[in-house]
Design brief:
Order of helices and strands: HHHHHHEE
CATH class of the largest domain: Mainly Alpha
Shape: elongated
Radius of gyration: 16 Å
Strand order of the largest sheet: 1-2
Distance between the termini: 38 Å
CATH superfamily of the largest domain: Winged helix-like DNA-binding domain superfamily/Winged helix DNA-binding domain
Helix content: 40-55%
C-alpha cells in the first residue's frame, strides 16, 4: 500500500504559493519558478492542487505579472490583462493597482513605462 505524501512545511507552502503564481506568467516555466524558490519540480503538481485557493492571482497580481518579463506602458498592461485574464480593465484601474504596488516598493515608473523593482510574487 502506498504511503500518503508528507505534508508540506509552512516554509514550503509559502515558497510553493510564490512559485505557482510565478509559473502562471506566460513564458515562465515551472522548473524555472521552482528553481527560483529552491523547490523540487516533482512536487509542483501536488502543491498546485493542494494550494489552489491560496495561489490565485489577485487583481494587483495580474497587473504586476505583466511586468515580470519587461517594463510596460499602461496600454501594454491593459492588453496583457485582456490576454491573460480575459478581463477588461480601464486605464484608471491599472494605474490604481500600479500606485498600490509602487507604495510598497514593487514597481517604479520611468518615462511612461512601469517596471518591476521588487521581489514578486
Amino acid at each position: 500500500m502506498k504511503r500518503p505524501p508528507r505534508p508540506f512545511s509552512a516554509d514550503e507552502v509559502a515558497r510553493f504559493i510564490r512559485a505557482i503564481k510565478l509559473a502562471h506568467v506566460p513564458g515562465i516555466r515551472v522548473r524555472d519558478a521552482c528553481a527560483k524558490y529552491g523547490l523540487n519540480p516533482r512536487h509542483f503538481a501536488r502543491a498546485r492542487r493542494e494550494l489552489a485557493a491560496e495561489s490565485y492571482w489577485t487583481g494587483d497580481d495580474v497587473v504586476i505579472a505583466g511586468l515580470v518579463r519587461s517594463p510596460a506602458t499602461v496600454a501594454n498592461l491593459i492588453a496583457f490583462i485582456e490576454w491573460v485574464d480575459r478581463a477588461t480593465w480601464t486605464e484608471a484601474e491599472v494605474i490604481a493597482a500600479l500606485k498600490r504596488a509602487e507604495t510598497v516598493g514593487l514597481v517604479a515608473e520611468n518615462g511612461g513605462k512601469w517596471r518591476l523593482i521588487g521581489d514578486w510574487p
